[in-house]
Amino acid sequence: MTTTRHAIHPSHFKTLDTKSLREEFLLDKLFTTDAINHVYTHYDRLIVSGAAPETKAVTLETIDALKANFFLERRELGIINVGPKASVTVDGQSFTLENKEALYVSRGTKSVVFQPTAGARFYINSSPAHREYPTRKISLADADTITIGSPETSNHRTIRKLLVNSVLETCQLQMGLTELHQGSVWNTMPPHTHDRRMEAYFYFNIPQGQAVCHFIGEPNETRHIWIKNNEAVLSPPWSVHSGAGTSNYAFIWGMAGENLDYGDMDVVQPNELL
After folding, report:
1. In order along the chain (274 residues), what is the average pLDDT of each group of 10 residues?
2. Contact, 50 vs 222, CB < 8 A?
3. What is the reported pLDDT for 267?
4. Is the pTM of this model over 0.90?
5. In this structure, how many other beta carbons lie within 10 angstroms of the beta carbon of residue 27?
6. What is the pLDDT of residue 262?
7. What is the spatial distance between Cα 150 and Cα 15, in angstroms, rounded to a whole number?
8. Which residues are part of a known binding site for Zn(2+)?
9. What CATH fold (topology level) applies to the domain 2-272?
10. Do 231 and 30 meet the contact criterion of CB atoms below 8 Å apart?
């Protein structure tokens, strides 16, 4: 199944009620057993997808929006395993991914098959690409990993940069995951915007009965969206993106745009938010 999300202007954003905010920015139906669901966005043409091959293999097929002979004819792809150990076959080569490991798939790849495993969950981002870079698996040991924040400010967290230019070359796609330490709830605090690229957050490992309140909007016009486990949210280039959970949790960040500098952020201090 493929759905489309159009870009929203900041002036339009100010008029949206809770229902409209969720319809425009929340991606809440990513996983269907033995299928791939896609959300084609008009934010830097990022595609956000979820694959759940539980009882049979699932193949990445092209979609009408691409007008392409195959899905990766003009695109690159990032996959992060958010389920049990499972494998992906890329043009006949098998890659086994442990939980939280990543796979970068090159532009020009014709066949991507997600192999069946009970409980399998693959989170996927794809963006347009201008050239081919090698397909490569990234383990947690390969990741560029940092721990920042503190228990005193409730934002002690470990950031694992998986598909970023300090680890491997990509055209414009960047992906990684952040894990909140026990007792910490705030992510991306202080928050920021980056007008050179958009971002999508996928929240997972949220305990049953808990949730994350995700903040979105211009720094002087913020709103919130409540997120449940295995749901994602879009963040336009003009919007802050931050969240606070009722428990610790993990999330995957994916970015697309013209700047591959991970540190390209226009930071907003907490006392400047409205």
Report:
1. 95 96 96 97 97 97 96 98 98 98 98 97 98 97 96 95 96 97 92 90 96 96 96 96 95 92 82 87
2. no
3. 84
4. yes
5. 23
6. 82
7. 36
8. 192, 194, 199, 241
9. Jelly Rolls (2.60.120)
10. yes
**What secondary structure, in 3-state letters, does the chain show?**
CEEEECCCCHHHHCCCCHHHHHHHHEECCCCCCCCEEEEEECCCCCEEEEECCCCCCEECCCCHHHCCCCCCCCEEEEEEECCCCEEEEECCEEEEECCCCEEEECCCCCCEEECCCCCCCEEEEEEECCCCCCCEEECCCCCEEEEECCHHHCCCEEEEEEECCCCCCCCCCEEEEEEECCCCCEECCCCEECCCEEEEEEEECCCCCCCEEEEEEECCEEEEEEECCCEEEEECCCCEEEEEECCCCEEEEEEEECCCCCCCCEECCHHHCC
Known binding-site residues equal 192, 194, 199, 241
Domain boundaries, the chain: 2-272
